[in-house]
Amino acid sequence: MSQGTSQGTSQGTSTEIRRKQLRWRCWHRGTREMDLLVGGFADRHIESLDSAQLERLESLLRAPDPDLYGWIIGRDVPPPEYDTDIMKMMRDFKFTPQSG
Questions:
Q1: pLDDT on residue 95
Q2: Transmembrane segments in this chain: where (predicted)?
Q3: CA dist., res. 5 & res. 92, Å (int)
Q4: Digit-coded pLDDT (tens) for 24-58
Q5: How open is the CA angle 26-30-45, to the nearest 5 degrees?
Q6: CB crowding 4-29: b at 16 or more within 10 Å, else e
Q7: Using only C-alpha atoms, what is the Rg of the chain?
Q8: Other CB atoms within 10 A of residue 73 CB
Q9: Residue 20 belongs to a domain with what CATH number?
C-alpha cells in the first residue's frame, strides 16, 4: 500500500518538476515578445495541463520562434502535427500586462 502512495507522490513530484522546467522554457524563448506570449500562456494554463498536453506543449517549444510566433498570431497555419489543442489555446490566449 505504501508503495502505491510513494509512486503517486513520485509521479506528482515528477509532473511538478516538468511543469517548472516547461514554464522556464516558455519564459526564455529568446525574444521579449515570445517570452510574454508563451510565458504568459504558461503562467495562466500550465497547472491545468495533463501529461499528454504537457507533451504537446514541449513539442511546440521545439519549433523555431518565427514559426511559432506566426502560428500564434494567425499569420501562418501550423503543420498538422503542431495544430493541436495547445496551439488553439495559445491562439485564444490574450496576454494582459500586469500593472506593477
A1: 74
A2: none
A3: 37
A4: 999 999 899 999 999 999 999 999 999 999 999 99
A5: 15
A6: eeeeeeeeeeeeeebbeebbebbeeb
A7: 15
A8: 12
A9: 1.10.150.250
* DSSP notation for the chain: -HHHHHHHHHHHHHHHHHHHHHHHHHH-SSSHHHIIIIIHHHHHHGGG--HHHHHHHHHHHTS-HHHHHHHHHTSSPPPTTT-SHHHHHHHH----PPP-
Q: In which band, very low, low, confident or very high, does the pLDDT at 97 lie, cut at 50, 70 and 90?
A: low
Q: Is residue 97 part of a domain?
A: no
Q: What is the pLDDT of residues 81-92, one digit of tens each?
A: 999 999 999 999
Joined grid coordinates for residue 52:
499528454
The residue among 35, 17, 26, 24 whose CA lies nearest residue 86 is 26
Residue 29 belongs to some domain of the structure? yes
**CB count, 10 Å around CB of 38?**
28
